[in-house]
Amino acid sequence: MVNKRFLLSGIAAAAFAATFTGAWAQGAPVKLGVLATLEGPFAAGGADGMRGAELAIKERGGVVAGRKIEMIKASSDAKPDVAVNSARKLVEQDKVDILVGPLSGGEGIAVKDYSKTQPQVTFINGGSGAQATTLENPSPNFFRFNTEGGQWMVGLGKAAMAKGYKRVMVIAEDYSFPYSQVQGFMTEFCGAGGKVPVKAWVPLGGKDYSSVIARIPKDVDALLLVLGGADAVNFLNQYEAAGGDKPLLGGSITVSQDVLNYRGKKRDSLVGTLSAGPLADAYDGAEWRKFVEAYKTNYPASAGGYPSPSLFAYVYYVNTKAALDGLAAVNGDLSGNHAKYRDALQKMVLKTPTGDVRLDSNRQAIGTTFITEVVKDAQGNLYNKVLAKVDNVNQTLGVPPAQFKIGSRDVPACP
Q: Structurally, how many domains does the chain consist of?
């Protein structure tokens, strides 16, 4: 017969242990993995993405709900397999609780798929902007608080038509994020009567653009460039050297501060470029100005910072802020495979420097897009001034979901 005194004492001990363990867990550090492309063509943007993530942590003094935030960095090179290997190290070796990242479009799709195998970890996007990451086979533990590449281009098609650009050649890197950017542009541009007679898809990390430059038709009014980082710099140098004089339209990454601030006279070719994206350097919102000042204070030029945060600094800041705001909302509780935490993230109205962001049913951001133009200030720095602002942009760009098609090499096509 079981001794009742022994049984009761055992139950009491177990209850005490559970209480003690729960209290310890609540005060234990939260391991936050941050994955960005610190190698390859987007290395400069990835480094600024890390600055954005760090800034969000610094704003909270490195502590949320009594739990210290331990940031663990990992690097990729914009290749999906490398990104997954780095994510696997963060999750399976470093034992992170939350992973913020990755940066590039194809990486995001791959890490989203990997997240389905790791239900104990919450994944929050870093800067990846491919539509398919959340619109196709979404993962229940992958959240994206930045709008994506297609959403970022809303308004640019109409702005191009208003400028008199009726025939545009596309020059873009050949992977999922530029497909999304081109889709976002063409949906609106073609709907307004514009034509895209040529699309040139170029490899990520390309060095020689001479064959693409030679293909530019004389009868196009402008070029849409969706090239980022070193790829954008290489193209611009070669295009100017070849005597190119077509007006430019820029993808969101083409006019980011990491490109606008590369050193050399060739960058002036970007002055006058119309673009669109989730931020604008010269936006006059109070929260944006506060964010820019915090960035400049923490990351002056001597520390590698830019005159204004790059797109990558901004989206990594937003997603890391979401991770921390969600943690604060549940008082640091990550129990039950983060059940309360994920519910808080899903329902959150995130306050960002450019306005409120909320998530749709696929855990994808609905937010603001800016239409911009590259100009030069008195010190010779290039920046994006605001031409227009579009709020509440959803992932299907206002098109009924049943009719919306994810961007690809061939989708959409002007009729």
A: 2
pLDDT at 217: 97
Same domain, 253 and 303: no
Record the tokens describing residue 290, joined without a space: 């506060």
195-238 confidence digits (pLDDT tens): 999 999 999 999 999 999 999 999 999 999 999 999 999 999 99
Using DSSP bridges, classify how beta strands 222-226 and 67-76 pair: parallel, antiparallel or unpaired. Answer: unpaired
Q: Is 155 part of any domain?
A: yes
Q: Are residues 77 and 109 in the same domain?
A: yes
- Centre a 10 Å sphere on the Cβ of residue 65 and count the other Cβ atoms it contains: 16
Q: Which domain range does residue 86 map to? A: 27-146+285-366
Cut 0.90: pTM above it: yes
d(CA 178, CA 17): 53
Beta-carbon contacts of 2 under 8 Å, excluding residues fewer than 6 positions away, are: none
Render pLDDT for 101-128 as a digit per residue (tens, 0 to 9). 999 999 999 999 999 999 999 999 999 9
User: Which SS3 state, helix, strand or coil, does residue 74 take?
Assistant: strand
Q: Is 249 part of any domain?
A: yes
pLDDT at 415: 72
Reading the block at residue 20, the tokens are 């003690």
Residue linked to tokens 């696997």: 88
**184 and 88: one domain?**
no
